[in-house]
């Protein structure tokens, strides 16, 4: 699997933020994460990234999130409930993974995430889908 830095789309980067649990790439309307090996991604970590996304992209803009699962890590799926309790909204969420553990984690997340989670075998497909959806949402607002 490819890292964000290895693809042509990387030239559109607005900002990169590195945390102790992963690296986050911010584009116009798009956040791509690459969580570090062995991390158990939880609500406290998510809150930190949500605040950064609002700071960089803005609270009123449609945001797509891509989890580029180049490393093995796990997500606390029930923490999606905390996401909604705090009135956050994420319509466009996709996962790039081609491993059995990544697929198993995705199945658990789907039980708690209120909208559809799209799965892609490569990062370019996820970006293309996300950018089209962001543009159509922007068009609907105008």
Order of helices and strands: EEEEHEEHEHEH
**Which structural class best describes the helix and strand composition?**
alpha/beta
Q: How large is the share of residues in beta strands? A: 15-25%
Quantity of strands, as a count = 8
Overall mean confidence score, pLDDT: 84
Descriptive terms for the model:
142 residues, alpha/beta, Transcription Regulator spoIIAA, six-stranded mixed beta sheet, two-stranded parallel sheet, 4 helices, 37% helix, STAS/SEC14 domain-containing protein
Protein architecture, described:
Helix content is 37%, strand content 25%. The chain is of the alpha/beta class. The chain has one domain: Transcription Regulator spoIIAA (2-Layer Sandwich). The strands form 2 sheets. A 6-stranded mixed sheet has the order 1-2-3-5-7-8, with helices on both faces. A two-stranded parallel ribbon has the order 4-6. A hairpin with a 2-residue loop joins strand 1 and strand 2. The longest helix is centred in the last third of the chain and has 19 residues. The chain is globular. It starts with 14 loop residues before the first strand and ends with a helix. The relative contact order is 0.17. The model has no long low-confidence stretch (mean pLDDT 84).
């Amino acid at each position: 699997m490819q890292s964000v830095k290895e693809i042509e789309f990387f030239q559109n980067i607005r900002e990169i933020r590195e945390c102790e649990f992963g690296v986050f790439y911010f584009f116009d309307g798009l956040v791509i994460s690459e969580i570090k090996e062995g991390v158990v991604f939880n609500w406290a970590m998510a809150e930190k990234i949500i605040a950064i996304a609002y700071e960089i992209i803005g609270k009123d803009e449609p945001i797509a999130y891509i989890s580029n699962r180049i490393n093995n890590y796990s997500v606390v799926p029930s923490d999606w409930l905390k996401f909604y309790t705090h009135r956050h909204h994420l319509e466009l969420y996709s996962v790039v993974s081609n491993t059995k553990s990544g697929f198993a984690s995705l199945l658990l997340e789907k039980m708690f995430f209120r909208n559809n989670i799209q799965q892609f075998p490569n990062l370019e497909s996820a970006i293309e889908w996300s950018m089209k959806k962001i543009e159509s949402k922007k068009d609907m607002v105008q």
